[in-house]
């Protein structure tokens, strides 16, 4: 009987799942001939966005991490004009549970919003627009 109880307790300890699971989502922000495409990957207290940026005319890409509606971190590229190349973001999400969603969006050289996506850790998907 004691062996069965000990085995049950041990099984419960090992069956526990981590509070924050990693996830990833494909990112695709496009505006005319400009785009930012890549993958957002969540870890326990950070989000890494690995992507390629093509700027037709002058464009800038921003990334913002959230826990619910609370902003955790914010990064951007410089303004790129008629060029392309790799562009990655590393976002801090140093709160219990980490980030559950991010915004990736593009502006013109004057900061006018052009296009963006909201991406979610749970389910690993993105939707058009900033939600």
Describe this protein's structure.
It is built from one helix and eight strands; from the N terminus they run αββββββββ. The protein is mainly beta and 131 residues long. Strands 1, 2, 3, 4, 5, 6, 7 and 8 form an eight-stranded antiparallel β-sheet that branches. The termini are far apart. Mean pLDDT is 88; it is low at 1-20.
Form type:
elongated
Number of H/I helices: 1
Looking at how many chains there are and whether they match, the oligomeric state comes to single chain
Contiguous runs where pLDDT drops below 50 for at least 5 residues: 1-20
Number of strands: 8
Q: Name the helicity range.
A: 10-25%
**H/E series, N to C?**
HEEEEEEEE
Give the termini distance in whole angstroms.
Answer: 54 Å
Mean pLDDT: 88
Q: What share of the residues does DSSP label as strand, in percent? A: over 45%
Find the structural class using helix and strand composition: mainly beta
Largest sheet, described in full? Answer: 8 strands, antiparallel
